[in-house]
Structures are given as C-alpha cells and as structure tokens.
Amino acid sequence: VQLVESGGGLVQPGDSLRLSCAVSGLDLNYYAIGWFRQAPGKEREGVSCFNGRDGSTGYANSVKDRFIVFRGNAKNTVYLQVNSLKPEDTADYYCKLFGFASWGQGTQVTVSS
To answer: Is the pLDDT of residue 112 over 80?
Structure first.
C-alpha cells in the first residue's frame, strides 16, 4: 500500500487549497482514511476522516465548517479541501489508512501574510 499526498503550498490567510491523497495497492471502497497534520513543535493531530464504504465523513472541531473531505472521480484519491485558512493551520498534512501502519510523505501547508 502506498499513499502520496500533494497540493500543499504557501498561501495567505483566508485562501484555500485542495490537498490530494492518492492511494495505491488496495480498493478504497473497503477502507477508511484519515487526514492528519503536524505543526512545528506539536504532536500530530487528526483533522478529518473519510469512510470509503459509505462515504461518511468526520472533522475535528478546529476545522469543521472550513475543511471538506471527499473522494473524486479517481476513486482511489481522497481530497481535503481546506478553506478560510488561518496561520494556525500551518502544518505538514498527512493521510493514513486506518488499520495500516504506513504514512505518506506529507504535504506542507504554510499560511502567512
């Protein structure tokens, strides 16, 4: 199983980004996947999750109403639409399949004016 994140960048407060997590090696229809982030000097925290079986989603309170997780037309790719970005959203963002130990390499999001 391999996960590859992309889509991060340097943006200003209030901007948006779309992060991608491409999964290979299994059919995402049978698994759940989570988005996590780790800010400098802080522990990794869960941000959002997507259940490939039924399409259900979940969000941390800190990002609810600003972030949207969904699966696109490429069925083994899960996206995290991050809107109304704040400086405190600055972090490396990772995706991970629940039940598997491996992590992707992450994609960096920096929010700064």
So the answer is: yes
Give the burial class of 37: count Cβ atoms within 10 A of its Cβ; 0-12 exposed, 13-18 middle, 19 or more buried: buried
85 CB neighbour count, 10 Å cutoff: 21
Token code pair at residue 80? 């995290």
Q: How is the beta sheet containing 45-51 ordered, strand by strand?
A: 9-11, 107-111, 91-97, 32-38, 45-51, 57-59
For the stretch 11-69, pLDDT in tens is 999 999 999 999 998 889 999 999 999 999 999 999 999 999 999 999 999 999 999 99
Q: 67: closest CA among 56, 45, 55, 82? A: 82
